[in-house]
Design a protein that fits this description.
The chain is of the alpha/beta class and 477 residues long. 48% of the residues lie in helices and 13% in strands.
């Protein structure tokens, strides 16, 4: 796995390089400017490019566009990083073809997770490329093999992401388990799972799919935010031979057809292109569709489970999501609370992950000290179960003791002190100083941080803070 790292900030570049080289044992080539990096990429392509967004001369976005225009660009995942990011730049990056978009200072666990997902993604791309030259076999045989390969890839992802075990450790999750058992028996009802990122939405989807039995029917996941809009229709419904330029000569099977008699899990449904929302509703209602370029209807029996971390009701009011599709999906709704609102699960989940990684990594961890338990329960876990899972994996991997102690959890304090990862206005976790609070100073610091968030735009900053421009100027002074 070859990685090209481009960052004009030496300290940041060195930190990322050391982590990728030392901790992940990857082949990393680093540069401080895009011109040199582009020359290196042209000479020999790379699997993953990690590039700073704002750099002198050619910036990261231009670099991304240049790479994607090259023949080898379609087989390269591009990860943009920046210390001055905002929603507009993130949207531009993803629309230009970026695999992911991270803000500085980087969290190594988050970077590690993105690298893992990229490896899975690239593996899938290579498999698809191989299929282009090997689709002269009988369609029925290819369809069976493709189903098996998709399931194998998904199983690998499940193992990497830690979804192999399900822990029911609270009344909240016990109630959701009961809902899942009911919904398992009613496969005609679409299900909408709402919850923060990392709170376990895919776990719940698999519980609905599996029920209390071993379900051998396919479970096909599709992340709506990871598919370019131009490819979405063919990804969902497949296409006939010659449906469009560069299409496979034998056509392709879509996710709906692959999930026949099983479950199609549409993650991040709020990112589904508006043009496809009506088509999805029609398939849910009629259980049939046309392939891209096809003239014959394809009938399917597919359970639909959708998940989102967005407020779909608000998106409906804003005209960003179809109300008829929302009400159809909302027939059965499951809302997952964030981990900091179900604290009783933290320690049992920690023990479950500790035992799992101790076994797989041949370590001897078997207990948690009282001080470590207190730290685990007090930390807000903004990344929810996924963050807890990654934290315990990191501890077990890097240490050889028998107990998880407060020393092992020191990195959580660093995360808490960074406003990138800790919301100071979370009423359940907000901490006030012991002696006194300088409210005016705090207001000024918030105003400055908001100004930085909007790249110096005072109008947007004032609107964000609910202030007039004159009031904002006063606080900035």
């Amino acid at each position: 796995m070859r990685i090209l790292l481009v960052d004009d900030e030496e300290l940041s570049r060195n930190s990322i390089y050391d982590f990728l080289k030392t901790q992940l044992s990857l082949d990393v080539h680093e540069f401080d400017n895009v011109i040199s990096a582009l020359a290196a990429y042209t000479e020999r392509s790379f699997d993953i490019v990690i590039s700073d967004l704002k750099m002198p001369g050619i910036d990261g976005l231009e670099f991304l566009e240049k790479v994607k225009k090259l023949d080898s660009g379609e087989m390269t995942d591009f990860i943009l990083i920046t210390g001055y990011g905002n929603m507009d730049s993130a949207i531009k990056a993803l629309r230009a073809g970026a695999f992911d978009y991270l803000q500085k200072p980087l969290n190594i666990d988050e970077l590690n997770e993105v690298i893992k997902r990229s490896m899975d993604h690239l593996s899938l791309l290579r498999e698809n490329k191989e299929f282009k030259t090997n689709l002269n076999r009988i369609i029925r045989t290819e369809k069976t093999k493709y189903k098996e390969k998709c399931q194998e890839i998904h199983n690998t992802y499940v193992e990497l992401a830690g979804y192999g075990e399900i822990g029911i450790f609270s009344a909240h999750m016990d109630k959701i388990r009961e809902q899942c058992e009911i919904l398992y028996k009613n496969r005609d009802i679409p299900v909408l799972i709402e919850g923060d990122t990392g709170s376990g939405k895919e776990i719940v989807a698999r519980m609905i799919h599996t029920g209390n039995l071993v379900n051998k029917t396919p479970f096909i996941p599709l992340n709506c935010s990871a598919i370019p809009h131009s490819l979405f229709e063919s990804e969902l419904f497949g296409y006939e031979p010659g449906a469009f330029t560069d299409s496979k000569k034998s056509g392709s099977i879509g996710k709906f057809e692959l999930a026949n008699e099983g479950t199609l899990f549409l993650d991040e449904i709020g990112d589904l292109p508006e043009a496809l929302q009506a088509k999805l509703l029609r398939v849910i209602e009629e259980k049939e569709f046309f392939k891209l370029g096809g003239l014959k209807k394809v009938k399917v029996d597919v359970r639909i489970i959708c998940a989102t971390n967005k407020d779909l009701k608000k998106m409906v009011k804003e005209g960003k999501f179809r109300n008829d599709l929302y009400f159809r999906l909302n027939t059965a709704d499951i809302s997952l609370l964030p981990l900091h609102k179900r604290k009783e699960e933290i320690l049992p989940l920690t023990e479950m992950f500790m035992k799992k990684f101790s076994k797989t990594k041949n370590k001897n961890f078997n207990s948690i000290t009282p001080k470590a338990e207190k730290m685990l329960k007090e930390y807000p876990w903004p990344g929810n179960i996924r963050e807890l899972h990654n934290a315990i994996e990191r501890i077990v991997l890097l240490n050889n003791e028998e107990s998880i102690s407060e020393e092992h959890l020191g990195f959580l304090d660093d995360i808490i002190s960074s406003s990138e990862y800790y919301n100071v206005f979370d009423q359940d976790n907000m901490k006030l100083p012991e002696d006194k609070l300088d409210l005016k100073k705090l207001e000024s610091e918030i105003a400055l941080k908001a100004l930085k968030k909007f790249d110096g735009n005072k109008s947007k900053t004032a609107e964000y803070l609910g202030l007039s421009r004159s009031a904002l100027r006063s606080k900035l002074k």
